[in-house]
TrEMBL record:
Annotated AAA+ ATPase domain residues: 25-176
SUPFAM superfamilies tied to this protein: P-loop containing nucleoside triphosphate hydrolases
Record's keyword terms, sorted: ATP-binding, Nucleotide-binding
InterPro entries xref list: AAA+_ATPase, ATPase_dyneun-rel_AAA, CbbQ/NirQ/NorQ/GpvN, CbxX/CfxQ, P-loop_NTPase
UniProt name for this protein: MoxR family ATPase
PANTHER family (UniProt xref): MAGNESIUM-CHELATASE SUBUNIT CHLD, MOXR FAMILY PROTEIN
Length: 294
């Protein structure tokens, strides 16, 4: 996933204000919201505006304390022994020394022992590394942890010890107007009304009774870009019905999670929603009428 660094944030004035104020007040922050709701975009933009350095960590099951904090270089240790010159900073040590923002994505996926390191740092403002010594947080160090409440891997595991040490800002899906503006920003040149339909289709995946988790605005961005590329290859208009359907299937079928007991394929549900928004397939044999449609 390569989300390009944003030059600006659409909407989110309230969240930006709350985040800036929370960081100013010295708090660590938990950004909680479904995937693609702009958590990373928001933090990047705030960090850039405040001219704060930030260190980015992808949270996953392999993020051990050593990977987060740092480790001793075995070859150098053989030569010179344990000490600051043989220690290789991980993202946490780097952020502590620099007084930077440490942004941890997918915090709910990281192992318990690594969460405990974060708890210690938040409580003490410093870290003790065996055979190295103390690393004290420089002025400005803050932890911003992002978390997705739909993630089955275990929001429950985020202990109350973490919740008790952070301020929490929730990020829901934005409204249709903002999502349309995001689409314009990330997939420029999308025709007006057609773009609104792409956004409508993606938003419907969040309300469909058979879908447990719908697509984020990322689905709309991918669908619009894919339509452009497919239409060029096929030598047809971006608004071509079949191009749109193919792009919807490819961009959305993997992004939606159907409710457990549903026997349908995700492609089937995407097609149903596509027809609901873009209309039934235009018939070319309906003599007289203009084929192709709008
Ligand atoms: N308010 C916004 N303004 C501009 N772009 C946005 C906004 N919200 C989302 N986007 C765009 O949507 C995509 C997803 O946003 P982002 O990566 O910030 O979401 P996220 O909440 O960090 O997702 P995840 O939980 O998967 O990490 C990006 O391409 C981003 O540029
Ligand atoms: Mg993110």
């Amino acid at each position: 996933m390569t989300d390009e660094s944003p030059s600006n944030v659409v909407g989110r004035a309230r969240e930006v204000e709350l985040l800036v104020a929370a960081l100013d007040s010295g708090a660590h922050v938990l950004l909680e919201g479904p995937p693609g709701t702009g958590k990373t975009t928001l933090l990047r933009s705030v960090a850039a505006e405040e001219k704060t350095d930030f260190v980015f960590v992808e949270g996953n099951a392999e993020l051990t304390p050593a990977r987060l904090v740092g480790h001793f270089d075995p070859a150098l240790v053989l030569e010179r022994g344990y000490g600051p010159e043989t220690f290789v900073d991980g993202p946490l040590a780097e952020a502590l020394r620099a007084g930077a923002l440490l942004y941890v994505e997918e915090t709910n996926r990281i192992p318990e022992e690594t969460l405990n390191v974060l708890i210690t740092v938040m409580s003490e403002g410093e870290l003790t590394v065996p055979r190295y010594g103390r690393i004290v947080a420089a002025e400005g160090f803050r932890l911003v942890a992002a978390m997705n409440p739909f993630d089955a891997v275990g929001t429950a595991r985020i202990s109350s010890a973490i919740y008790d040490r952070v301020c929490r800002i929730t990020m829901g899906y934005q409204d249709a107007v903002d999502e349309r503006a995001i689409l314009d920003l990330r997939a420029p040149g999308v025709p007006g009304e057609w773009g609104a339909k792409v956004v409508d289709l993606v938003r419907r995946t969040r309300e469909h009774p058979e879908i447990r988790v719908g697509s984020s605005v990322r689905g709309a961005i991918d669908m619009a870009r894919l339509c452009g590329a497919l239409a060029r290859r096929r030598g047809v208009d971006v608004e071509d019905w079949t191009v749109g359907l193919d792009a919807a299937l490819v961009a959305l079928s993997g992004r939606i999670r159907l409710a457990e007991s549903i026997g349908r394929a995700p492609e089937d549900v995407v097609r149903e929603l596509y027809v609901a928004v873009f209309g039934a397939e235009p018939r070319e044999d309906s003599g007289g009428d203009d084929p192709g449609g709008a």
